Amino acid sequence: MPAKSFVIIFLLPLFSVVVGHETVQSEEYPLVVSTWPFVEAVRAAWKAVDGGSSAVDAVVEGCSTCEELRCDGTVGPGGSPDENGETTIDALIMDGLTMEVGAVAAMRYVTDGIKAAKLVMRHTEHTLLVGEKASEFAISMGLPGPTNLSSPESMETWTKWKDGRCQPNFRKNVSPANSCGPYSPTHYLQHPGETCSSIGHILTSNSGLPRVGLHSHDTISMAVIDRMGHIAVGTSTNGATFKIPGRVGDGPIVGSSAYAVEEVGACCATGDGDIMMRFLPCYQVVESMRLGMDPKLAANDAIARIAKKFPDFLGAVVALNKKGEHAGACHGWTFKYSVRSPAMKDVEVFTVLP
C-alpha cells in the first residue's frame, strides 16, 4: 500500500507551521514574501507597498531594513568577516516587468547594498558592479561612505578564528606556509617519490568546511507583488564567514538567489551559494512555473536537482506565482520564510521541514 502523506497547519497570530511543502494561497495583492523570519523587514516592505509604493521600491525598503538591523549578522555591515577580517556586501534587485537587474558584489566601504544595486539598475546600462569600483560608483551617486563595514563582533569572530589556526576554511588542495597561509597549490602528482601517507599532512581539505547556516551565511531574499500586480525581487547579504577575499556568492547572481518574471511569478533562495549558483535554482523555479508546475512542485524540483549532485548541501527556495500561491522547499536544514498579505493581520512565518 502506498504511503499516505499528511499536511498539518497550525495557525497562530504570527507563525504558521507548514509540513510537506504544500502550496499556500493568498487571495489578494499586495503580497510580500521573504526568506527567514525577518519579520521587521517584511513589515517595512508591506508598509511601503500597501501604501502604494512600487514592487521595486518596497523590496528596497524591506532589504534596507534588514541591512540596518543587521539581520542575524549575515545581512548588512558588521558581520561575516573574510579571511582578512573584512566585511563586504553582495546585493541584487530585479524588476520582473522590465527584466532590468542591478547588482553589486564584494562591495567595500558602503553599507547600503540594496540601494547600491538599485542605483546600478536605474543609472547604468550594466547589471553587476564589483569590489571597490562598485563602492566608488555608489558613493558618487550619493550613498554614504566610505565606511568601515567591520564591527566589534565581526572582529572578535575573526580573531578567534585566527587563534584557531584559521580552521575551518574554504581552501582545498593547497599547502600553507604556516597555519594561516600564504597558500600554494599542492601538485602532488609531480613528486613520484611521495606516497599518499607522506603528502596527507600538507593537504588542506574542505572536510572541515564551515557549515552554511543561520548566523554563518544567510541571505535576505525578498519578493513583492504590488497593487498593480507588478513583481520585483531583491537580495542582500554579507556572504560566507571566513570566505576567501574576493569571493562572490549567489546573492548578486540573477537567477540564483532570486528571479522574477511579471507574467509568471518569482523565487527567493538562500543557503550554500557556492553550490546553489551552479544550478540557477530560482531561474529553474520560475521557468518550471511558466511550464505549468505549481509552486510546490517547482520548488521541490529545483532543490532535488541540486541534492542529486551534492547530497550534503544546505539550501532552500521559496516559489511564488501570480495567483499569490507560495511554497517552500529545503534540503539539509529546517527552513522558515515570512509572508504578509491583505488577509493577514501581521506577518506569518512558515516552517518547512526537509
What are the SSEs and their pairings?
Blueprint: E1 9-11, E2 15-18, E3 24-25, E4 31-35, H1 39-50, H2 55-69, E5 89-95, E6 101-107, H3 113-123, E7 128-130, H4 131-140, H5 152-163, E8 174-176, E9 183-185, H6 196-199, E10 220-225, E11 231-237, E12 258-261, E13 265-271, H7 273-276, H8 281-290, H9 295-309, E14 315-321, E15 325-331, E16 335-340, E17 348-352
Helix pairs in contact: 1-2, 2-3, 3-4, 8-9
In this structure, how is the largest beta sheet organized? 10 strands, mixed
CATH architecture: 4-Layer Sandwich
Question: Class by helix and strand content?
Answer: alpha+beta
Please name the CATH topology.
Glutamine Phosphoribosylpyrophosphate, subunit 1, domain 1
Order of helices and strands: EEEEHHEEHEHHEEHEEEEHHHEEEE
CATH superfamily, called what? (Glycosyl)asparaginase
- Give the C-alpha Rg: 21 Å
What is the global morphology?
globular
CATH class annotation: Alpha Beta
Mean pLDDT comes to: 88
Low-confidence stretches: 1-21, 189-208
Instruction: Report the strand count.
Output: 17
Which sequence of strands runs across the widest sheet? 1-2-17-16-4-10-11-5-6-7
Strand content: 15-25%
Indicate the percent of residues in helices.
25-40%
Number of domains: 1
Number of helical segments with 4 or more residues: 9
Alpha carbon gap, first and last residue: 24 Å
Outline:
By secondary structure, the protein is α+β, with helices and mostly antiparallel strands. The protein contains nine helices and 17 strands. It has one domain (31-151, 214-352): Glutamine Phosphoribosylpyrophosphate, subunit 1, domain 1 (4-Layer Sandwich), CATH 3.60.20.30.
